[in-house]
Specification:
Shape: globular
CATH superfamily: Tetratricopeptide repeat domain
Number of domains: 1
Number of helices: 9
Helix content: 55-70%
CATH topology: Serine Threonine Protein Phosphatase 5, Tetratricopeptide repeat
CATH architecture: Alpha Horseshoe
Number of strands: 2
Structural class: mainly alpha
Strand content: under 5%
Length: 197
């Protein structure tokens, strides 16, 4: 209930109330280990932090959302978390990285045949325009295209933004049995040794 209220606050632009409700909800959800809800509310709290100008806090929450989305195999949440990380953009210090993440997120959404919520769409569109202006159109398009061209396996390295852990590997015990199927049709079952089709 608190998380839903926080989402409504966020949509209404009441960032203080959104932060308060989403942070309280996230604390409860973490205590319950409710991963399916944590992934969603961590992203929304990340948006509230981003909109409030707290890029470091936003990036940490988006990284948490990405980490859980990958572990659970929820591709839509993965795409949203990539958008969030692109927005936070390493505190604005690496526009090429942000452009590439926007490309990866857009490709993930295209693979799902879906679109994103209006708020996230407006934020992503504005950020891509900002990046295009800062980098120049050619540089932006090159990084964006590189992000769109990433295979699901290659995009797993983006998880390394989390300061808590390194890149995903078969040695990660939390991923044993998790399968990621990408646009190439190749699936990878972690802990199983090799890709399967």
């Amino acid at each position: 209930m608190l998380g839903n209220l926080g989402s409504v606050d966020l949509s209404a632009g009441d960032l203080d109330a959104a932060r308060s409700h989403l942070a309280e909800a996230l604390g409860i959800l973490r205590a319950l280990n409710a991963r399916d809800a944590i992934v969603y509310h961590a992203f929304n709290l990340g948006l509230a932090e981003y909109l409030g100008g707290s890029l470091g806090a936003a990036e940490a929450l988006f990284a948490e959302s990405l980490d859980l989305a990958r572990r659970m195999g929820t591709q839509r949440h993965t795409a949203y978390a990539l958008i969030g990380l692109a927005l936070a953009g390493r505190g604005g210090t690496d526009p090429g990285w942000s452009a590439r993440l926007h490309g990866a997120a857009d490709q993930a959404l295209a693979d799902l045949g879906g679109s994103i919520e209006p708020l996230e769409q407006r934020l992503a569109d504005a950020d891509r325009e900002r990046l295009r202006a800062a980098m120049g159109a050619a540089a932006f398009e090159a990084e964006y295209a590189a992000g769109r061209a990433l295979t699901s396996e290659e995009s797993l390295v983006w998880r390394s933004v989390s300061s808590r852990r390194g890149p995903i590997s078969d040695a990660d015990p939390s991923l044993r049995g998790v399968t990621w199927a990408g646009p190439t049709g190749i699936s990878r079952r972690y802990g199983a040794g090799s890709p399967t089709s």
